[in-house]
UniProtKB/TrEMBL annotation:
GO terms for biological process: secondary metabolite biosynthetic process. One of its GO terms (molecular function) is hydrolase activity. Belongs to the metallo-beta-lactamase superfamily. Glyoxalase II family. PANTHER family: ENDORIBONUCLEASE LACTB2 (PTHR23131). The keyword Repeat does not apply. SUPFAM superfamilies: Metallo-hydrolase/oxidoreductase. It comes from Coniochaeta ligniaria NRRL 30616. Its cofactor is Zn(2+). Keywords: Hydrolase, Metal-binding, Zinc. This is Metallo-beta-lactamase superfamily protein. Residues 33-191 form the Metallo-beta-lactamase domain. The keyword Mitochondrion does not apply.
């Protein structure tokens, strides 16, 4: 059964210099919706992400800026996924003077004219952000350290509920290891509520991924009975990703198995690079020569 998520206010001041505006696009993968953040205390503000292009989002942003007597000087995009960039057109229609910044800026449904470099700083009154290239969820993914609060905008690498998906597990884990050392306070995620202890949550993410990896290894090392072997193979030592899912994710609804299988494939590919498993077509087996 899916967990019922507590609703988030459409607009909420999270700190003196940070206002969250939710994108109006709740869903299975977006949770309560895409979080966008308006930062600063003066007339010039920074905006992190632009949502999915829902009319409610630009209306809420316009209303908030009018109340704050402010404008968006620069918009910073965490990554190219549509639910973070499709509000760009609405933003520019309302605020054509806003500068758009994105890492690998030409790789997006909407091209952003300005790149973001690792270590680049963005500053307005009350808010200083330092960009950190943290690939894994996507190759262009950026996080931002919020200097005044010793906090971090984690994009979709770390969420307020559950765990995140990723394109490359090894790269993702490397980014998480770096992220947890860069701040000590809150994490402001791309989806879900604020995380009070960001580094602790990132440590949980790393431990969870390591645990899943170990479960895959241990399952591959086990030998199935004849009754468990699929009809298309008589090899009790070779497993398909879905067969692994059915063992490892027994506590998860079967409707989520396809998504889980995608994560298992990522784990298998990492383990193959580590020399711990070997691929045989669409099946996998433990590498008996591996020291582990």
């Amino acid at each position: 059964m899916a967990v019922q998520l507590a609703p988030l206010p459409e607009v909420e001041r999270l700190s003196p210099a940070c206002i969250r505006i939710v994108g109006g696009n709740p869903g299975k993968f977006t949770l309560q919706g895409t979080n966008t953040y308006l930062l600063g205390t003066g007339p010039r503000r920074l905006l992190v992400d632009t949502g999915e292009g829902k009319p409610s989002w630009i209306a809420a942003l316009r209303k908030t800026l009018a109340e704050e007597k402010a404008h968006v000087a620069k918009a910073l995009i965490t990554h190219w996924h549509h639910d973070h960039v499709q509000g760009i057109d609405d933003l520019l229609e309302y605020s054509p003077q806003t500068e758009l910044h994105k890492n690998q800026h030409q790789q997006a449904p909407v091209v952003c004219p300005h790149d973001i470099a690792d270590g680049q700083r963005f500053q307005v009154q009350g808010a200083t952000l330092t960009a950190v290239h943290t690939p894994g969820h996507t190759v262009d993914h950026m996080s931002f350290v919020f200097e005044e609060e010793d906090a971090m905008f984690t994009g979709d690498n770390v969420l307020g509920h559950g765990t995140a998906v990723f394109e490359d597990l090894g790269t993702y884990l490397g980014s998480l290891e770096e992220m947890k050392t860069l701040f000590k306070g809150r994490a402001y995620p791309g989806h879900g509520p604020v995380i009070p202890d960001g580094p602790a949550k990132i440590t949980e993410y790393i431990q969870h991924r390591r645990q899943r990896e170990e479960q895959v290894v241990q399952t591959l090392r086990s030998k199935r009975s004849v009754a468990e072997v699929s009809a298309d193979t008589d090899d009790a030592n070779a497993w398909s990703p879905m067969e692994l899912v059915r063992v490892i994710y027994q506590d998860v609804p079967e409707t989520l198995y396809p998504a889980a299988a995608g994560g298992v494939v990522q784990i298998l590919q990492k383990l193959e690079k580590d020399g711990k498993v070997a691929a045989e077509g669409e099946r996998w087996r433990f590498n008996s020569r591996s020291p582990l």
